[in-house]
Amino acid sequence: MDESSLPSSVDVDxxxxxxxxxxxxxxxxxxxxRCAKLVKNPYEASSTATETSLS
Length: 55
What we know:
One of its GO terms (cellular component) is membrane. The chain crosses the membrane at residues 15-33. This protein has 2 helices and no strands. It is mostly helical. It has a domain at 13-39.
């Protein structure tokens, strides 16, 4: 029985690998922006954490 539902060019493992790499790059971009925000203004980013511990 021939699998006519999937074309021969579809590779499931390759699709998972590409999706994983794309999600990894998106996570990396989000982390870069968060770290840049923290470096730009560290007191504003950590002000809520220090206020709750001091009171």
